[in-house]
């Protein structure tokens, strides 16, 4: 398949998966009602945090079609680290009250250690710095996710140069976080169809 075709598949997979998972998440009660942060989560209705799984599915589809386009996944440790970051974020999304800070940090450290394994040959300080940077990156993008579209747009721009198929996957999700949703008839504020969720912000933070 051509590069343009893989881009299209990545974009379409993310868009279709976001639509389907958002519908399924609403039916199953896998939603973020906003009660934990009413000052910044102003949605009129609960929103399913399914962006992470949708983007991950799209990246996997692109990888299957064109493994050569994923040089940044050349070693298995990077893939394992991304899987760990996604898993800890997904666990936080699925837990009724989220994970405790200690549990979340522990998972982020596991992802960071896996990511830093290839660097141990360059010395312990180098590897330790990479672990710290990985933890900071996961939390940084999670912070940007407080504003609809901010984290996904930042990730899409950041991935264009080194992981373009990943950027296409984020682009497929982004409309459902910015423009496609329900509008409150009184305040006229837009409630997104889907949130990126911790699974998405952790996965993309480490990828960046």
Any overview of this molecule?
With 208 residues, this protein is mostly helical. 64% of the residues lie in helices and 3% in strands. The chain contains 8 helices and 2 strands. The chain has a two-stranded antiparallel sheet. Helix 3 (76-94) runs antiparallel to helix 8 and helix 5 packs across helix 6 (150-159). The protein is globular and about 50 Å long. The chain starts with a helix and ends with a helix.
Low-confidence stretches: none
Strand content: under 5%
Describe the main β-sheet briefly: 2 strands, antiparallel
Number of helices: 8
Distance, first to last CA = 26 Å
Topology, number of strands: 2
- Tertiary shape: globular
Give a summary of the structure in a few sentences.
With 208 residues, this protein is an all-alpha fold.
Chain-wise SSE layout:
Elements: H1 3-28, H2 51-65, H3 76-94, H4 101-116, H5 124-144, H6 150-159, H7 164-178, E1 181-183, E2 190-192, H8 197-207
Antiparallel strand pairs: 1-2
Q: What attributes characterize this protein structure?
A:
208 residues; mainly alpha; two-stranded antiparallel ribbon; 2 strands
């Amino acid at each position: 398949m051509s590069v343009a075709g893989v881009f299209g598949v990545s974009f379409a997979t993310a868009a279709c998966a976001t639509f389907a998972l958002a519908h399924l998440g609403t039916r199953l009660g896998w939603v973020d009602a906003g009660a934990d942060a009413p000052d910044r989560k102003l949605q009129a209705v609960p929103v399913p945090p399914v962006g992470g799984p949708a983007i991950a599915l799209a990246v996997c589809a692109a990888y299957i079609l064109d493994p050569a386009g994923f040089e940044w996944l050349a070693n298995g440790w990077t893939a394992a680290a991304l899987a760990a970051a996604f898993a800890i974020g997904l666990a936080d999304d699925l837990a009724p009250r989220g994970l405790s800070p200690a549990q979340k940090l522990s998972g982020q450290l596991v992802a960071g250690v896996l990511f830093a394994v290839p660097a141990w040959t360059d010395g312990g300080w180098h590897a330790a710095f990479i672990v710290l940077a990985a933890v900071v990156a996961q939390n940084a993008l999670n912070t940007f996710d407080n504003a609809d579209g901010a984290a996904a747009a930042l990730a899409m721009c950041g991935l264009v140069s080194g992981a373009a198929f990943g950027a296409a996957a984020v682009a497929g999700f982004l409309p459902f976080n910015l423009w496609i949703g329900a509008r409150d008839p009184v305040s006229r504020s837009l409630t997104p169809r889907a949130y990126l969720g911790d699974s998405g912000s952790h996965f993309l933070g480490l990828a960046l």
